[in-house]
């Protein structure tokens, strides 16, 4: 997709998009086009009783007086609290409409479309970013699609009174690349994306200045990673850990570490999952996907911070050699775990990945992301990621980053009582709790692999990694949730 910014007059072909506040005065772009169409916009608004509610669209095909194929009015809601995220939703919603037409060019007519809260350059850049995010499509396996079934859109032209938008957009473009990488990884089927091929994909980040380290099974065995290796034991695919290092900050300054669950397919193992919906478990590497995309974003925009991304990659399969319910494994930390359910595998992978990350990098803070429990979807649906931390400062930082980025989080309980629920009769702990609070007992389990005084938060993104239905800036499928959150968290707290 080609994206341009211009202050010149509007192109004469393509779909021209005109945003409109429901309360405020009309923009210069609106007035100009209304004049060019001899009052056509106002007539259409009246005829359709159009109120310019947030995201609502009024399409005028072949408007008289213009050569453009369409004029599309899009509602921006109330002007006074119009934010950067609103600008993105507006851009995405308008593009969503155009993707179902045969238009080749989308023109955002933003001249004079201003609001108090948001600088005109920021506004234009965020409109463009939202628009691009909506154009994502994972179509590499469609071999028989008719050309006419695909969108014809190749160009997004943003016309606003500022050229500074280009500079602002350059950063958003890098973050967008990270989001697209995460969506690609999450969408990929498990016969294509497995630990080894995932590790290879991480090499794409080398050109951004990221250093890649890969741990193979013999090294992990030597390090004593019995918890992670136990999960991968039933798979013909070798397990891996990949570390991605971006050192853009002060030399010697302790990094922040992101750790992702990368179960490239989760059958449940011997505690086999039911068949219905099992295909969803190709995206059980969503945490690892988010960490990888975030590293691409952070390195891509050359963040002045030291950031480490670590992903634990395994495939959880039933097999003659698979681990059994009741097996006891020893983790790298030395703690033993009774594996009562082989489907509670993500925490086993993270146990060793978290411990190794702390031993290797002595991070200033650790944040893990994982599609860890179905229970978090029961609690929060597809509205929020669950945030578990005992550190109020970190909770505030992540909460703020969530609000700014739009990757929303809701803080969940994590107490000593949850930790008591994973006591084992024969080992240091068991990998499942009792009947209730499944997401909190999972978090408590992870907490046992965090060293004393290391600020740590666990983000359960099982409800967020995959989008069941279209949203303004996210088409159905892999969402890229977490990329902007982590990027924003780094920007706000580590780039002083
Ligand atoms: N990968 C699943 C969690 C999951 C469920 C992610 C639905 C995305 C959508 C995880 O490994 C799992 O199986 N968790 C079990 C834990 C239970 C056995 C304690 C669950 O949530 O049922
Ligand atoms: Mn599982
Ligand atoms: Zn899983």
Report on this model:
This protein has helices spanning 28-36, 40-48, 84-99, 120-134, 165-187, 195-201, 217-223, 226-232, 286-300, 346-361, 375-380, 392-405, 416-420, 438-447, 483-494; strands at residues 2-6, 15-20, 57-61, 70-75, 105-109, 155-159, 211-215, 240-247, 256-266, 306-316, 327-330, 336-339, 365-370, 385-388, 409-411, 429-430, 456-460, 466-467, 477-478. It is of the alpha/beta class and 496 residues long. The protein has two domains: 2-162, Leucine Aminopeptidase, subunit E, domain 1 (3-Layer(aba) Sandwich), CATH 3.40.220.10; 174-494, Aminopeptidase. The strands form four sheets. An eight-stranded mixed β-sheet has the order 7-8-10-9-13-17-14-15, with helices on both faces. The protein is elongated and about 80 Å long. It starts with a strand and ends with a helix. It binds ligand BES, manganese (II) ion and zinc ion. Ligand BES is lined by residues 266, 280, 284, 341, 343-346, 371-375, 432, 438, 462. Manganese (II) ion binds next to loops.
């Amino acid at each position: 997709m080609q994206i341009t910014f211009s202050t010149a007059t509007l192109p004469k072909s393509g779909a021209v998009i005109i945003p409109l506040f429901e309360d405020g005065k009309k923009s210069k772009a609106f007035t100009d086009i209304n004049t060019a169409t001899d009052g056509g916009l106002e007539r259409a608004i009246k005829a359709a009783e159009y109120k310019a509610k947030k995201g609502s669209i009024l399409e005028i095909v072949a408007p008289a007086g213009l050569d453009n194929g369409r004029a599309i009015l899009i509602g921006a809601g109330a002007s006074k609290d119009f934010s950067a995220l609103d600008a993105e939703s507006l851009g995405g919603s308008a593009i969503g409409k155009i993707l179902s037409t045969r238009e080749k060019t989308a023109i955002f007519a933003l001249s004079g479309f201003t609001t108090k809260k948001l600088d005109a350059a920021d506004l234009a850049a965020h409109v463009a970013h939202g628009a691009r995010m909506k154009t994502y499509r994972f179509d590499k396996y469609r071999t028989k699609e008719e050309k006419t079934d695909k969108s014809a859109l190749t160009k997004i032209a943003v016309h606003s009174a500022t050229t500074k938008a280009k500079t602002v957009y350059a950063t958003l473009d890098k973050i967008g690349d990270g989001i697209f990488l995460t969506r690609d990884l999450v969408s990929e089927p498990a016969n294509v994306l497995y630990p080894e091929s995932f590790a290879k994909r991480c090499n794409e980040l080398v050109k951004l200045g990221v250093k890649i380290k890969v741990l193979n099974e013999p090294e992990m065995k030597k390090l004593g990673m019995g918890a992670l290796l136990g999960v991968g034991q039933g798979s013909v695919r070798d397990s891996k850990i990949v570390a991605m290092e971006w050192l853009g900050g002060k030399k010697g300054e302790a990094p922040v570490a992101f750790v992702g669950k990368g179960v490239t397919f989760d059958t449940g193992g011997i505690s086999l999952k039911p068949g219905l919906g099992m295909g969803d478990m190709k995206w059980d590497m969503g945490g690892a996907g988010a960490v990888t995309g975030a590293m691409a974003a952070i390195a891509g925009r050359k963040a002045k911070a030291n950031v480490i991304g670590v992903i634990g990659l395994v495939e959880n399969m039933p097999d003659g050699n698979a681990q059994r319910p009741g097996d006891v494994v020893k983790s790298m930390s030395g703690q033993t775990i009774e594996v009562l359910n082989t489907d509670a595998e993500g925490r086993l992978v993270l146990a060793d990945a978290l411990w190794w990350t702390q031993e290797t990098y002595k991070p200033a803070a650790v944040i893990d992301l994982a599609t860890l429990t179905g229970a978090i979807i029961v609690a929060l649906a597809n509205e929020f990621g669950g945030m578990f931390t005992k550190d109020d400062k970190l909770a505030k930082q992540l909460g703020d980053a969530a609000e700014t980025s739009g990757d929303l989080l809701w803080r969940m309980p994590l107490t000593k009582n949850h930790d008591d629920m994973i006591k084992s009769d024969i080992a240091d702990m068991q990998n499942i709790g009792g009947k209730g609070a499944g997401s909190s007992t999972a978090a408590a389990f992870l907490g046992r692999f965090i060293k004393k005084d290391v600020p740590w938060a666990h983000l359960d993104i099982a409800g967020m990694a995959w989008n069941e239905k279209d949203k303004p800036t996210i088409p159905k499928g892999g969402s890229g949730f977490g990329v902007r959150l982590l990027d924003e968290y780094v920007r706000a707290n580590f780039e002083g």
